[in-house]
Amino acid sequence: MSEALEIFPVTNKRQLNTFIKVPWKIYKGDPNWVPPLLIEQRTTLDTKKNPFFLHSRIQNYLACRDGTPVGRISAIVDDNYNDFQKATSGFFGFFESINDKSVSRALFSTAEKWIRAQGMNRMLGPTNPSTNFVLGLLIDAFDKPAVLQMPYNPAYYVELVEDFGMTKAHDLYAYYMEDIVPISDKIQRVAEILRKRKNVTVRPVNMKRLKEEIQLIKTVYNDAWERNWGFVPWTDEELEFMAADLKLAAIPDLVLFAYVDGELAGWSLALPDLNQAMKRINGRLFPFGIVKLLWYSKKTDMLRVLNLGIRKKFQGMGLDAVLYYETYTRGNKHGFHRGEFSWILEDNHPMRNAMENWGARIYKTYRLYAKDL
User: What is the structure's pLDDT at 288?
Assistant: First the structure.
């Protein structure tokens, strides 16, 4: 007879520390899992430090069997999401479980009960913790390592989620490209024509004026993505929070702003895939992790293009080609020979067509699930 399963809310720092470390049990021996930074996980889940929680609520739960952690889940309500989307949805996130449906069913049921108690009528996920951060369940390509700020999970998670009655809400794609695929003549021609005819200029971020630059990012982001599925505007506090990570990880030459006749028109963000270095430190920066991180980050050969946005009034003129051309050529000069473009919505056909025309291919799929309550 199996030991009794207990699901309980996380209410103190000791329990939160246990909650954060559950993945180390689940992924033990998995060569494609990259341990997250413990300090980053604590900050993300700290309701006093993370500005996401100025407009959101969260309840974390642990699953234990005979005192041993066997799973976890977070139940989340984002008021900004619901206000903007005119929805009454809650989210589940930070889900981890051993391959046992009695555990996953208990976790999902507990999260569903909390979300329903908040007055919500739909559960979406996984989001860690929102659609502006890490989201989606990996449903294929389990033989490939996780890339910076993209999720990874065992293949059996798909069965656990669908067993609870959750169904597909949306798929997100990650595209992949290597510099053995030369950038197309068409992109180069488009970039050159736009520079001449539309007075298009591109410049890198000025890290000394980061506060002002962040406001430019906000202008583009909240305009360019407004019509996208799952969009929720960033707040000033969230952008400042993000800027702290940008300072640490960004190569200024790969954070780009595009202008048309001197007017801000778009931006793109590409970061080194620091997961290649983070894999070496097992989530710990101290005492020697930070030295290893700095050392191995110099050997990183892959970029992740996280964001590329064009303000609505400038869409359709080819500015995305200019920004990708600049990212490709600048990245090459900095020693990056591979790139992931993620994530791209399954119904974002203009972007998908552009990616495929440029020689990139889909190599990972992430799924957002939903269940009506």
Answer: 60
Distance from chain centroid for Cα 362: 17
The owner of tokens 């009454």 is: 88
Class of domain 180-336: alpha beta
Q: Alpha carbon of 168 to those of 123, 125, 126, 174: distances in Å?
A: 12, 10, 11, 17
CB neighbourhood size of 3 (10 A): 11
* Residue 31, pLDDT score: 94
Using one digit for the tens of pLDDT, what is the confidence trace for 179-190? Answer: 767 777 777 888
- Extents of the domains making up the chain: 5-170, 180-336
Degrees to nearest 5, angle at CA 280 with 277 and 281: 105
Strands (E), the chain: 5-9, 56-65, 68-78, 89-97, 122-125, 127-128, 134-135, 137-138, 167-178, 200-204, 255-260, 263-272, 302-310, 338-345, 361-372
pLDDT at 358: 80
DSSP secondary structure code for residue 207 in this structure? G
Q: Which residues in the chain come in under a pLDDT of 70? A: 1-2, 180, 287-292, 294-296
For tokens 């990996």, what's the residue? 138
Return the closest-CA partner of residue 148 out of 178, 183, 174, 129. Answer: 174
- To which CATH superfamily is domain 5-170 assigned? Gcn5-related N-acetyltransferase (GNAT) (3.40.630.30)
Return all residues near 135 (Cβ < 8 A) that are at least 6 apart: 125, 126, 127, 128, 151, 172, 366, 368
Say if residues 373 and 117 touch (Cβ distance below 8 Å). no
Cβ–Cβ under 8 Å, residues 61 and 70: no
| Residue 1, pLDDT score | 38
Cβ contacts of residue 110 below 8 Å, gap of 6+? Answer: 7, 61, 73, 75
Distance CA 111, CA 60 (A): 9
Same-fold call for 5-170 versus 180-336: yes
